[in-house]
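[Structure tokenization] protein backbone as discrete codes
[Encoding] learned vocabulary of local backbone shapes
[Protein] chain in single-letter code, fold in tokens
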Amino acid sequence: MMSAVAKKAKSVQQERVIGEQGERTRVKLLEAARQVFLERGYSAARVDDITQKAGTSHGAFYLYFANKQDVLEALAVATADHMYALADELEGIEVGEEGYEQLRAWVERFVDEYERHSPVINAWITAEMEDSRFDQLGREVLGQFAGRIAHTIARGVDAGLRHPVDPGTAAVALVSMLERFCYFWLVRGGPFKRDVVIDTIAAIWYEALFGQRKQA
């Protein structure tokens, strides 16, 4: 017979396996939803589409999510976390040629992240018109992302590197420009070349952050 200690160990192991399996199912549903939003659009997407794409039952879906809005919210929050981490990377960028190259690399990473998360971002924009919680989440993300950028602008102002501007206003303007451009280019299919886009945005941001043009 199995001892009490062995039974307890097996029970703990089973709980861990169930937890791991549950997380795998949840991730599978999230990835399926991302694909469905890309293929069908958020408004036309149904829970049926998500479960079929994931190869799971409706019961499994409702174990983790109440509806497709819950799925999108989970995807949107994860996307926002990626963007926050990216914004934090600007803190270490300084004026100068090396700083410009770091900024250009940052812009390239932003473009990569935006493109990777574009199915979620597009669904999120659509949902903002239908559900106030996504509009509120969008405002929060813009505010927090811009707040991180504002710190870098403020450093440039305090160091006398650029003409004084209100860091918060300038940051929202910069972030809005970058996000809208990427939406038009990567989601709507704007006719732009990748290297030209990255070089142009990096030059605009460098001058905006530090008040200096990149030296030719």
User: Anything to note?
Assistant: Residues 72-216 form a domain with the Tetracycline Repressor; domain 2 fold (CATH 1.10.357.10).
